[in-house]
Write a structure and sequence with these properties.
The structure holds two protein chains of two kinds. Chain A is mainly alpha-helical. Chain A is built from four helices and one strand. The radius of gyration of chain A is 45 Å and the shape is rod-shaped. In chain B, strands 2, 3, 4, 5, 8 and 18 form a six-stranded mixed beta sheet that branches. A five-stranded antiparallel beta sheet of chain B has the order 10-9-22-21-20, with helices on both faces. Classes of the chains: A mainly alpha, B alpha+beta.
């Protein structure tokens, strides 16, 4: 009787069970880690996409603003504003000009009468003379 | 018991059948029809996104922007994703500037790609996307795009050209340098989710765009503005058919300014007439008249046929030759070469030509660049017309000597005058300083010596007398500088043969300072409405040259020449202050 009872008893193979549990646990963990990584990848991807969009937007806004600046400061636009009286031309004061090349005097009297440097010619009467003497 | 087993067997058989069916369907989907379904899925979720290349800018020689790109968005719809077109239209229509109903109709189709609106500003496109996200609607997306803008509008339009709706250069520099300016679009293979947003993880192969090169022209916008202003004034005052001015550096062949009227705004090229778009500096031919006398005189001097002691009898203003009469405006007796140029004697020029052999004279004309395209990098340049000697009649040579029976373009005349100014070298006109960071990308043209330096200098000094009080163009003088130049007054050719009475093309081509020329210019006014007695190169084109020259000298801060006094009050340029 006791022999028969012994025969029908199943032995729990603890080692095998433990190995299997550990294996399943590891597999589960690997699966979860895979899912976690995949989610992270998508999250980072979304961040990258948003960042790219922001960069593109900033770049486009910058280009649009530069184009606006070009258009507002173009010669045609400035001339129009000049005609409208929004801006005006003002003579540059003699003291505000630093010349790198020394003035060349005329041969006869040493007085420089030039088209480009004579303030009367340049800006009309009333502006201090810029005739230079040596 | 048997019946029970039979029922179990039946259920099992049914289950086997069902799962066999499923398995077959799986094999059908995944193996047999794999390619087809893969393609359908790819079509729905995968996309080859074009990454547009930025078109290169066009700049003047100082880096001033002449053609730029304004980024905009093209709004497109994937109508297969739109559940409620009316609601979507209600949210987005204000940003697109479209009526709601029209937009709803466009969104109601079932097409996967519909262009809703082009050239939507960046701000409005962003606001629209945010409004859609807030209303939890999707189906509309935006694509990067840009349109070409010319901040200076009409200024330099004939050089710049324009870009058509598809972004391709259609005229001017935009056309000639299309390959350099356009760059190469890139691409990226992407997959998107059901909302149409890219799944970055599945991003496929990509190639970044290769942006277009910036092109830096030889044009100086300061000088261009001066030329434009003066040509505009002449155009408004004299009401000619057209007016053209070109400024160049005679030492390098660089074109510094090129202004022509009528003109157009390249931002609105679709409103321009064909006539306004024609670049008359390179595509119009005209009889140059007396300006052409520089060719015959320099050629004869160069060959030793005439020298500084030569005096030519000018028949007191009326010379019959070959059955035709050549007349001078003022009759003269014996004239030296400088005097022939100064008084612009047709008879003198004709007699000099008669001293030369036909082929020799023809060769000089061709060597000065007439009858050949100059090679300026602009589309539509014509070669002009030079009749070869075997087709000449008795009087052709005498006519060519003073600029009749020959057709030239303004740019050819500029380069010919440059040869006189720079010591006899014929240069190729240069319009592009560099492409991108490199050189112009154009082969350097060989420089041809047309006449010896001595001959060129002799003619240049003779041309200085043209702007003296005894010459034909005292009004072309530039205060502070010694100017050399030549006037031209040519009757317009009738399309029915012969010449049109009382209608003239007048011109002045000159350079300064004579000793060391820095600026060379030509002004051509076609058919000014002034009456026969006032319509001369010296009285119409000369003053325009003078005004341009004075302002250009100030702009370039050129040192005036000793002994040359400033006697005329000109307009001013100075710093700009905002009120």
């Amino acid at each position: 009787m006791s022999r028969n009872r012994r025969k029908t008893t199943n032995v729990i193979e603890v080692n095998f069970l433990a190995r299997m549990i550990v294996l399943v646990f590891l597999l589960g963990l690997a699966g979860l880690f895979f899912v976690y990584l995949k989610n992270q990848q998508h999250a980072v991807g979304n961040q990258a996409r948003e960042m790219e969009a922001e960069l593109r937007e900033a770049e486009a806004k910058n280009a649009a603003l530069q184009a606006k600046i070009s258009s507002w400061t173009s010669r045609g636009a400035l001339q129009q504003r000049l005609d409208e009286g929004s801006i005006r031309l003002e003579a540059i004061r003699d003291t505000a000009i630093a010349r790198v090349t020394p003035p060349v005097p005329a041969e006869a009297d040493g007085v420089l009468r030039t088209a480009s440097r004579d303030s009367d010619v340049r800006f009309g009467p009333g502006v201090p003379q810029r005739i230079l003497k040596r | 018991m048997k019946g029970f087993s039979g029922r179990i067997g039946l259920v099992c058989a049914l289950l086997v059948l069902i799962f066999t069916g499923f398995a077959w369907r799986l094999i059908h989907l995944q193996v047999l029809e794999h390619d087809q379904f893969n393609a359908i899925a790819a079509e729905k979720h995968e996309q080859r996104k074009v990454l547009p290349a930025r078109r290169g800018r066009i700049l003047d020689r100082n880096g001033e922007e002449l053609a730029v790109n304004i980024p905009v968005r093209t709004v497109t719809a994937d109508c297969t994703h739109i559940k409620d077109p009316v609601a979507l239209a209600k949210v987005t229509a204000p940003f697109l500037g479209m009526p709601e109903q029209e937009l709803a109709e466009k969104l109601s189709t079932k097409r996967p790609y519909v262009v809703i609106r082009k050239e939507v500003s960046e701000d409005k496109a962003q606001d629209m996307i945010r409004a859609m996200e807030k209303a939890r609607l999707h189906g509309l997306s935006t694509e990067e795009d840009s349109f070409r803008s010319y901040p200076n509008k009409e200024m330099l339009c004939h050089v710049l050209g324009y870009v058509d709706g598809s972004g391709h250069g259609k005229d001017g520099i935009e056309k000639v340098f299309e390959a350099n300016l356009a760059g190469h679009d890139g691409f990226r293979h992407i997959e998107h989710d059901r909302k149409g947003q890219e799944i970055v993880v599945y991003r496929g192969a990509e190639q970044l765009p290769d942006k277009g090169s910036d092109i830096r022209l030889t044009i100086d916008m300061g000088l261009q503005a001066i030329a434009e202003h003066e040509v505009d004034e002449a155009y408004k005052t004299n009401h000619p058919v057209s007016a053209t001015a070109i400024l160049a550096d005679p030492n390098t062949g660089e074109i510094l300014a090129l202004a022509s009227r009528p003109n157009y705004d390249p931002n609105k090229f679709n409103l321009a007439k064909a006539d306004d778009m024609r670049n008359r500096a390179i595509s119009d031919i005209y009889e140059p008249g007396s300006v052409f006398k520089i060719v015959v005189t320099s050629a004869a001097y160069n060959e030793g046929i005439v020298d500084d002691k030569t005096r030519i009898f000018c028949e007191n203003g009326c010379f019959s030759y070959g059955g035709k009469t050549i007349k001078d405006h003022h009759g003269s007796g014996d004239l030296s070469i400088p005097e022939i140029l100064m008084k612009s004697s047709n008879i003198g020029a004709a007699k000099i030509a008669l001293r030369m052999k036909d082929q020799m004279f023809y060769d000089y004309v061709r060597n000065f660049g007439f009858g050949t395209r100059t090679g300026i990098p602009l589309p539509g340049e014509v070669r002009g017309e030079v009749i070869p000697p075997h087709r000449w009649d008795m009087i052709t040579k005498t006519r060519v000597a003073f600029g009749q029976s020959i057709s030239v373009t303004p740019i050819q005349m500029v380069m010919a005058m440059s040869a006189i100014a720079n010591g006899g070298r014929l240069l190729k006109p240069k319009l592009v300083l560099n492409v991108g960071e490199g050189s112009s990308g154009l082969p350097e043209a060989p420089v041809t010596e047309v006449v010896k330096q001595e001959s060129a200098n002799y003619i240049a000094n003779a041309l200085e007398k043209v702007v003296s009080n005894q010459g034909t163009a005292p009004l072309a003088r530039v205060n502070g500088y010694r100017v050399a130049g030549k006037t031209g007054t040519a009757q317009k050719i009738s399309p029915h043969g012969g010449y049109l009475a009382g209608r003239y093309i007048v011109s002045f081509a000159g350079f300064f300072p004579v000793n060391k020329p820095r600026i060379l210019g030509i002004v051509i006014v076609d058919d000014a409405k002034l009456g026969e007695t006032a319509n001369y190169g010296g009285s119409v084109a000369g003053p325009v040259f003078s005004k341009i020259g004075e302002k250009a000298a100030r702009y370039l801060d050129m040192d005036p020449e000793p002994g040359e006094s400033a006697s005329r009050v000109g307009s001013s340029t100075a710093a700009v202050s905002v009120r």
